[in-house]
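Students often ask what a holo structure prediction actually looks like on paper. The answer is less mysterious than it sounds. You provide the chain, you provide the ligand, and the output is a string of discrete structure tokens encoding the 3D arrangement of the protein together with alpha-D-galactopyranose.
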Amino acid sequence: MTVFGVPTGIRAWAPGRVNLIGDHTDHTGGLALPMAIDLGTTVSGHTGGAVVELRSPIGPEPAIVPLDVDDPAAVSPGWARYVAGVVAELRPSVGLSGSVVTTLPVGAGLSSSAALEVAVALALGFEGSALELAQLGQRAERRASGVPCGIMDQLASAAGVAGHALRIDCTTLEVRPVPLPDDLEVVVVDSGQRRALATSAYADRAAACQAAQASIGPLRDATLADLAGVSDEVVRRRARHVITENARVDHLAEALGSGDRQSMADAMTASHRSLREDFEVSTPELDALVDQLRTVDGVLAARLTGAGFGGCVVALAGRGAPLPDELTLWRVTASAGARLIVGSPKGPAAQQPRA
Ligand code: GLA
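The corresponding structure tokens follow.
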């Protein structure tokens, strides 16, 4: 088989993710409940040379990254920065020539960049656990984008479990698979709004969380009563979101276990309100979409998912619930994590990430 005319000796696949609840909690060691999805990114190619050269329908220009790349953030085109971030973190001894294809919408809040990082790392011969793979991807993302992101996206992509969401404790880095009820469907709806302000606004929100922690200690351990110790009103609201959102992760995880649809809806509805009012990362487009979905028969609840400022909404719906035709949506299923599908750049030892 050839892709863009090159033999495909190696093929790695990594899923995107949708977060069911627990947004803007990972960078303060909080709780999140994402799942890897059945949309993802495939990197195919063959090893050799002193550059990583990947072509993609994502954009007209290829990613051409020397193995000694110094500053991933200075590389162009934009998508090549994530490839460069991985090269800079992994420092493979040989290059790769091939292609990137994806079934994920790019830049829509479904972690297309994390999927790219994780797939590139596997294709370049990464060896280690799923957690180590995710940590490498997170460092690559930070270097490439300058965004002080948490570990949720890369860990969901690397450690996904079919049929399960993942309760991630971002302090201990423990991942607990939470089975999803058979009678429910996870639906991702694209607002069509791309995330223009995400970089500066994400850093601003992360800084507010750090400011709160400087006053009252780790938000992960804080209670609402502790908020009295935060003098700045805006910082207090940001911290309130994180404290209440951490609690909602366990509410939703428990409700998924017991099948209590009202509790699922309550947790997701409260999460969206908190992201809108306390964390201020929603937009009128996302709010309108959430409101519209709530009126649809068979939809339990909906909330923005991921960083916000555009991107997607996630909804829980009864299986097969008819949804409005005009929406751009994916009925996603929870997927297993990233894997090397073909080949082994370093020989038989370089295989799946260890669990
Ligand atoms: C982005 C970041 C994640 C996480 C989410 C919000 O996707 O990459 O680390 O902070 O936003 O939950």
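Residues 19, 23-24, 26-27, 149-150, 152-153, 306-307 surround alpha-D-galactopyranose (CB under 6 Å).
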